Structures are given as structure tokens and as C-alpha cells.
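Bench notes, afternoon.
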Amino acid sequence: MRRTLLGVAAAAVIGGAGCLLAGCSSDSGSPSAGQTGSVSAGQTGSAASQQAAATFDDVLAHVAAGAKLYDVREPNEYSSGHFERAENYPVGQLTANKMPSVAKDTRIYVYCRTGVRSGQAAAALKQAGFTDVVDLHGLADIQKMGGKLVTS
């Protein structure tokens, strides 16, 4: 009984801290508009760097300074609409251990349609030793940050 209560308390504290860092609203448990929602299980980097991209313009500024923005969906999904400055790097390549040729400390943003594949991609990158991986989750999350889909 005591272990169960301690486990529940620990989960609540950890979940609350993650939600606080991600900017969750109290009613939905998901990132609120204007927040990255980038804090995810197993993500590396400092809390300050995890919160650094509050808008999509912040992400674009980081990409202009050398960060990478990977759309981890399939090529046909990417061509039907992706975010400005994003490169297509399907999650299947990452899970097959075909990693990007960038320094391990390069900030890497990942996203997909709903957030499932971006979570898998973030985990694969972290497992491969990349130290600054930010999961932006799904298309709707990035649109809430101000991102607009492009087709060119």
C-alpha cells in the first residue's frame, strides 16, 4: 500500500513538472497555444533550452542558426504540406539507425502528423547519442505555435 501511494505521488510530481515546463493548460493536459510542447519523456537538454522555442518563429530562428527541423512523416505526406525550412527525414530511417550527418549536440526539432512518430524519432535520436532533441509533436501543435503548412 505504501509503495503504491509513493508511486502515485511520484508520477503526479513528474507529470506536473513536465506539464509545467511544456506549458500545459489545466483543463486539457496538452500544450497551450503558443507553447512548443517540446518537453517529452526522455528528452535531453536543459529546461531553458526546452522552453526556448515558444513560437514557430523561434524555431525558424534556431534553424537559421544551425538547428535542424525534421518532418519525420513519409515523403508523400511531406510533399502534401510541411512547415517552412523542414527537411523530410522519415522515422523509418531513424529507427533503422540511419542517422543525420550532424554533430551530436546540434539542436534537432522533429514533428509528424499527430505526435506518435515524432516521439519515436526523438527516442531513436536520443538513443543514438543526440543531446538536444526537441519533439514538437503534431501538425496542429505547430500550427498553434504559428507555423503554416507550405507545399513548395
